[in-house]
Design goal:
0% helix; 4-stranded antiparallel β-sheet; mainly beta; single chain
């Protein structure tokens, strides 16, 4: 099950909740009990070895598949 982020329009509380995909659109606010809507989650890029470059993740040399697909 995925973790979704929600924002309550009544009390402005932001929270996360583990929900099945078919029930992920709304959730009850843990603070005031009102229906809260799911918000767009922002993910941080992975950092490997202190570098901020997304290309520095642990991929085999050659890129996405090691070069076997002809992409390089």
């Amino acid at each position: 099950m995925p973790i979704y982020e929600y924002a309550c329009p009544t009390c402005k509380t932001k929270f996360e909740k583990l929900r099945a995909m078919e029930h992920g659109a709304t959730a009850d606010c843990p603070r005031c009990g009102q229906h809260a809507s799911r918000v767009l989650s922002v993910m941080a890029p992975a950092r490997v070895g202190g570098s901020t470059s997304p290309a520095s993740t642990s991929m085999p040399s050659g890129g996405c598949c090691g070069g076997a697909c002809g992409c390089h």
